[in-house]
From TrEMBL:
Chain segments carrying region Disordered: 1-23
Protein name as catalogued: FAD/NAD(P)-binding oxidoreductase
Domain spans labelled FAD dependent oxidoreductase: 33-391
Ranges of residues in domain BFD-like [2Fe-2S]-binding: 440-493
Pfam families: DAO, Fer2_BFD
Highest taxon, organism lineage: Bacteria
Annotated InterPro entries: BFD-like_2Fe2S-bd_dom, BFD-like_2Fe2S-bd_dom_sf, FAD-dep_OxRdtase, FAD/NAD-bd_sf, G3P_Oxidase/Oxidoreductase
Length: 504
């Protein structure tokens, strides 16, 4: 499904930064049709969709890279929406988003594995809940769930611990690379003309009346001036897709519609040798608290156990905890005891934007030229393209005129990070063309010098080591950079120059 595509056309390394600086300076001198705040998967999808129309779009983010917030640390499941609440906006957009993102992944090379999922009932209460879950799936437009016996549960996942009473299959649940998804959408958006401003935390918003002569506000054309530490950005419409900060940003526009509670989810990632134990997603029967602890293969060939669900007050606390590990190990001992005998490659924690509302909050304030896109839970990855489509419709109803462009560039072809598909180190034809793809730098993840070079020559190069890891998997393996760290750091210092250049 995924093929490697090196960048087209040579670009000098210093030229990228210089051009970016010029674009950033000019960004403060114009009035955009739409400013999208938040360059995660949802904000990037919105910017991409809007810039496919006759609109000027700017995408802002407080961080120095796209997808560096909530979007980078989740369970990376492409959901069918079978267990969403029927009749909600979330249910409709997840179902539509599954179709759109599946097609977009095929088009751009985002790796997806159609593993399927199995809900497992461990108690009589959970077993009794399965028919209702199947009925809910049908109400959501998904008709492929089937109840199975305990014997069939163990036939499908032999490594499960004892005591399972039955299950429910969800054959179309899949795993996807969330890193590549966000990067593809942001890259596509910028290719379509979106201006990307990273490191631009929005600290204030001021509405300027049309005809005042201030900030480019023309006759009958109100605008909003966004204050950031690097300069002011002016737009006719503002879309708030700020994730964990969406309620704070909503407050800058005078609203108190909801509160975001950062919910920490800790996960354990097991070595690739554990992959035969879990060839599909193993789900718990969901509760009001959430979807619970699952076992899932990852697109990178590992097996994941988690997440926890701990409400915090600190919106930046992505540290792992002893109590979180103890909780996961206790759950894992029941779910799949043999998994705990495998080596843990990594542990990490992500923050989800839990809100005091039962559905997505996509609400316009027309007099302010402002649209809230909040309350987007973990299903936001799957729903991202459908959310973008819906946002465009809401803005059109609010009076934003947007004609479809006929001159759109081809979507980007993304480098493959999926373990199940051909990667550069094993592609003999590619190595024959360019030997850099045969020089492995990170041996745990089989990342080559050519891939690191390509990351820095790409339209959206990494801002640091974490960004490089999300683009290549470098240092993401069992040694966590212990063996390759020095070489990778040297390549980071030379912005993807060859190992020989890095040594000089």
């Amino acid at each position: 499904m995924t093929e490697h595509s090196p960048p087209t056309g040579p670009v000098a390394r210093g030229e990228v930064t210089e051009q970016a600086d010029e674009r950033t300076q000019s960004a403060y001198d114009k009035v955009y049709d739409v400013a999208v705040i938040g360059a995660g998967v949802v904000g990037s999808a919105i910017a991409r969709d809007l810039s496919g129309h006759d609109l000027s779009v700017v995408l802002l983010d407080a961080r120095d890279d796209v997808g560096d917030g909530t979007s980078k640390a989740n369970t990376a499941i492409l959901h069918t929406g079978f267990d969403a609440k029927p009749g909600t906006l979330e249910s409709r957009l997840v179902r539509r988003g599954y179709e759109l993102l599946s097609a977009y992944a095929d088009e751009t090379g985002i790796p997806v594995e159609r593993t399927g999922a199995l809900l497992v009932a461990w108690t009589q209460e959970e077993l009794d809940a399965l028919p209702g879950l199947r009925d809910k799936a049908v109400a959501n437009g998904y008709e492929h769930c089937e109840p199975v016996t305990a014997d069939e549960v163990y036939r499908q996942v032999p490594a499960l611990g004892p005591g399972a009473l039955g299950g429910l299959t969800v054959p179309d649940e899949s795993i996807i690379c969330t890193w590549t998804t966000t990067l593809a959408l942001a890259t596509d958006a910028t290719a379509r003309g979106t201006t990307l401003l990273l490191g631009h935390r929005v600290a204030g918003a001021r509405r300027v009346a049309g005809g005042s002569g201030e900030e480019g506000a023309g006759p009958g054309e109100d605008v909003t001036v966004l204050a950031t530490p690097r300069g002011r950005v002016t737009a006719r419409w503002v879309v708030n897709a700020a994730g964990l900060g969406a309620d704070v940003l909503d407050g800058l526009f005078g609203h108190e519609r909801f509160t975001v509670t950062p919910r920490r989810g800790e996960l354990l990632v097991y070595d690739k040798l554990a992959r035969p134990l879990a060839d599909r997603i193993v789900l718990p029967v969901p509760s009001s608290r959430g979807k619970g602890v699952l076992i899932s293969p990852t697109i990178y060939g590992n097996v994941m156990l988690g997440p926890t669900a701990e409400d915090l007050t600190d919106r930046g606390d992505t540290g792992t905890s002893e109590s979180g590990f103890a909780f996961l190990l206790d759950k894992g001992a029941r779910l799949m005891p043999t998994l705990l005998e495998e080596e843990v490659t990594a542990s990490y924690a992500g923050l989800r934007a839990a809100v005091d509302h039962g559905d997505y909050l996509i609400e316009p304030s027309v007099d302010q030229g402002y649209l809230l896109v909040g309350g987007i839970r973990s299903t936001g990855l799957t729903a991202s393209l459908a959310i973008a489509e819906h946002v465009r419709g809401v803005l059109a109803e609010a009076g934003l005129k947007a004609a479809v462009r006929l001159d759109l560039p081809e979507p980007p072809r993304m480098p493959n990070l999926g373990e199940a598909f051909l990667r550069p180190y094993e592609d003999g034809a590619l190595i024959a063309q360019d030997s850099a793809y045969g020089r492995v730098v990170c041996f745990c993840e089989r990342v080559t010098e050519g891939e690191i070079r390509d990351a820095y020559l790409s339209p959206l190069p990494p801002a640091g080591l974490d960004g490089l890891r999300r683009r290549t998997r470098a240092t993401n393996g069992r040694c966590q950079g212990f063996y390759c760290g020095a070489r990778v750091d040297a390549l980071v210092a030379t912005k993807g120059g060859t190992c020989q250049e890095a040594a000089e």
